[in-house]
Amino acid sequence: MTLQRMLARRRDLRDASSERGGALLELAISIPIFVVLIALIFDVGLGFSAARDSSSAARSAARVAALAGEERLADFRAIDAVRAEYTTSGDQIAWIAIYRSAPGGTGEVPIPCRPGGIGAGGLCNVYDADQIATLTAADFSRDDCSGNPDVNWCPTTRREDDGDYLGVGVWTVHNPTVGLVVGRNGGGESNMARVNLEDRAVFALFFPEEVGP
User: Fold this and answer.
1) What is the pLDDT of residue 31?
2) How many whole angstroms separate alpha carbon 149 and alpha carbon 171?
3) Contacts of 90 (CB under 8 A, 6+ apart)
4) Which of 76, 80, 86 has its CA nearest to residue 155?
5) CA dihedral sign of residues 44, 46, 48, 50
6) What is the tens place of the pLDDT at every residue in 9-26?
7) SS3 content of the chain, % helix, strand, coil (to 5)
8) Is residue 25 part of a domain?
9) Residue 34 has what pLDDT?
């Protein structure tokens, strides 16, 4: 083998080794990026699913409560409808507001009925996470709602609001699996650990006509 061929062969070996090294370097750089992208897609997908669950819970609860009309357990049935949407979910229900909405309005949840509020007479009942987790039908026992959690807007008086609408606002906390999606906490600050979701639905109050004897 001539010297020229030996030098050419060494040069080819160096080029091949350099190409392999470059390929390994590119692979080492691309793998973490690929993993992060997959994790981000996964978290975003779960976030959309959580938002869909929140919307579905609000609609189910509003429909149930509106159709219940002046039935004593209207609020309890609405709360139970929200809980049913989250029986297999890892998300938490943080707040439920059941409120009266005037025709032609925006359907927005009134300020006293939003998280941290105490409700308002003739306007809304509010339920925090602890109540939502523990309330039973027995907690809604008095016909006049006195001492019961739905005393502010008692279902048995809702016929007086015939022509109005009933709204349900639902606030939930979604905990991302990976945590790459940045949410906002109650104070508006960034929070990598959770995403706060809010949804509402409004339905016309329904009162079936009383059938005579």
Assistant:
1) 79
2) 18
3) 175
4) 76
5) negative
6) 555 545 445 556 566 777
7) 45, 20, 35
8) no
9) 75
Residue 212 lies in a domain: no
Bridge partner list, 120: 124
In this structure, the strands spanning 165-174 and 92-101 are antiparallel
In a domain, 114, yes or no: yes
Q: Which amino acid is at 99?
A: Y
133's enclosing H/E stretch is: helix 129-134
What average pLDDT does range 63-84 have in this prediction? 97
Q: In Å, how far from its chain's centre is CA 153?
A: 25
**How many domains, the chain?**
1
Does residue 39 sit within a domain?
Answer: yes
CA distances 165 to 65, 98, 109, 168, Å, are 10, 11, 12, 10
Helix axes 3-68, 74-85, angle to 10 degrees: 170
Q: Which residue, chain included where needed, has tokens 């906390």?
A: 173
User: Could you tell me the CA-to-CA distances from 95 to 58, 132, 142, 208 in Å, in that order?
Assistant: 11, 8, 23, 30
The per-residue pLDDT of the chain, averaged, comes to: 83
pTM here is: 0.77
Domain of residue 81: give its range.
Answer: 31-204
pLDDT digits (tens, 9 = 90+) for 174-208: 877 665 555 444 444 444 456 789 999 999 999 98
